[in-house]
Amino acid sequence: MKAIAETLQGYFDENLRPELAKKLERLIEAEPQAAIALLRLSRVEIGLFDWGERQKATQEAPPRPSASARRGQPRSLRMFRLASSLAAAAAVALLVGHFTGWISEPPVKQSPVKQPPVSMTTPTAPEKDRTTSPDEAPFPRSPVPQPERSNDEQIVLLDKAWRTEAEAQEYPGPYRGKPRVDGGGLGTLGGHRRALPIVSGVGVFGGNTKAALKGSLCSLPEGTKSLVSIQRCVAEGIMYTNALNISKRRFTSGFPGVSERFQWFALDYVGRFSVKVQGEYAFRLASDDGSLLWVDGKLIVNNDGVHALTSKSNTVTLDQGQHKIRVLYFQAKGPYIALQLFVTPPGGSEQPWSPEF
Amino acid sequence: MNEFIQPKLCQLDLIQAYRKALLAYALTILRDRALAEDIVQEVALILTDRIGAGLELDAFWAYARETARRKCLEIARERKRWALSERALDVVDAAFDSEVSNRDSQETALAQCIDKLPVKWSQIVDLRYRRLVPVNEIARELKATPSTISVTLNRIRARLAECVSTQLEGLNR
Fold it and tell me: With a cut of 0.85, is the ipTM above it?
């Protein structure tokens, strides 16, 4: 088993040579133990990334002694440390579970302060720029202090907010642009699926021709004050676009073919873009009202809240190639809208975001 | 007798419990963690629908694995990415079904095993998996060649896989 595991060691190398891949494939075909060994290696690889995430989550805790220093400590103390860490992790998990249905957050402070840079290679959490205002909370606050949430947790909570169980049955198409509208979706698996309508023609926020960004529209309850406070939002229709460059304007046309709504709505754009050169890219997100930008799953710009046209920027280091992007936008009350995303490539000048630059 | 999964009550817990195993499965097929994450997200959504339609608990695991397999092959075809052959996948499937036990203990065992790594290896693990530093940059930081770092990472994975197996075997005794 050990010999097989050693043979499989190069399997996760980024530059695995095709001939070696073939050789490993043949080994797996011939030797069930190789498949077991490979699955175990995969579990370790996934487990290591999860471990890294957990370590990051506890970064703000008092600094731990280094591994070498810990090795100098008695084993019982190390075990105690480990047990404490596990207990803390379990407590955090319980708290997160407790708050699953309760995601109201304090409002976003509307400050034009530039956020600190984020590196995708050595990511750091964007600076929290929120003020506390219990009056903003639409639901009673829990007596338990709210846990610090990672970006991923925030995304999960926002995902959950998009629809309820009952609504999921009416619109089985899941959130995050997953509803299939292009050929029956999951019908082959026996699941009944109703396709979401696509906007007819070209609207301000997108059209019906497939493009790099796929936007899902949902209606918000009146009084929504921020994206992170959304308790529920049912996806109603979709649209596609290759740009987010809607300058401030009146908006009374709604979403032809989907909804006549022109206020109290949210849009979730997901897609990919590619960059030709590695380097530091500056993203500027301007919106009326709130918006959030994620790149490769990391929250880069937080421009949330009800506000007039406000612009926020941040930089991120990107490798050459494809990257995931997600923009959440919401419009509260009023006829004026705006949503613009600009990018400044390394050594270049600012330009509207496009699928390739 | 088959037990029916109660939607709303435990479907999320159940999917979450299998998430890592499914991630590992997809990673095994595609060798790409980002793609594996996408696959598992899609599978989770499909499972949610299926559980709501009364999927039996006994069938859950096989259904999840089969769905993940189909999705992996679909995405590999669409994006012209490398993926394990169907024949190799049959072997992996059989191995996978025999490996699903001890899911809950795995995380604890791995954390303990990471703690036992030599200092130098701990440093590499920290750079690669906590700070998500690419192999080339780790090599620069540690004044080594990228291939040395790759080989070391492979050894670390192998050591950890062996350590986790040993720990889990100990638990089962």
Answer: no
Does the pLDDT at position B58 exceed 50? Answer: yes
Contact A44 B20 (CB under 8 A): no
Task: Give the pLDDT band of residue A163 (cuts 50, 70, 90).
Answer: very low
Taking CB atoms and an 8 Å cutoff, what residues of chain B touch A25? Answer: 84-85, 88
Q: Which own/partner contact pairs does B164-171 have at CB distance under 8 Å and 24+ positions apart? A: B164/A40, B164/A43, B164/A44, B164/A47, B164/B106, B164/B109, B164/B110, B164/B113, B165/A40, B167/B105, B167/B109, B167/B112, B167/B113, B168/B102, B168/B105, B168/B106, B168/B109, B171/B102, B171/B105, B171/B109
CB-based contacts of A283, cutoff 8 Å, min separation 6: A293, A295, A300, A301, A313, A314, A315, A316, A341, A342, A343, A353
* Helices B57-78 + B86-98 axis angle, to 10: 150
Q: Is the pTM for the entire model greater than 0.90?
A: no
Q: Do B92 and A35 count as a contact with CB atoms less than 8 A apart? A: yes
Tokens 């190398």 appear where?
Answer: A13
**A336-344 and A279-288 strand pairing:** antiparallel
The predicted-structure confidence for A183-233, as pLDDT tens digits, reads as follows 222 222 222 334 677 777 778 888 888 888 988 888 888 778 788 777 666
Are A110 and A305 spatial neighbours (Cβ–Cβ below 8 Å)? yes
Mean pLDDT of the region A286-306 = 87
Question: Which chain B residue has the Cα nearest residue A45?
Answer: B157
Interface of A with B in 211-230 (CB under 8 A): none
B70: confidence class by pLDDT, cuts 50, 70, 90 = very high
Count of beta carbons in the 10 Å neighbourhood of residue B123: 17
Q: How far is B17 from chain A (nearest CA, A)?
A: 13
d(CA A235, CA A186): 18
- Residue A293 bridge partners (DSSP): A301, A327
Residues 176..205 of A with a Cβ closer than 8 Å to B: which?
176, 178, 186, 189-191, 193
pLDDT digits (tens, 9 = 90+) for B123-141: 999 888 888 888 888 888 8
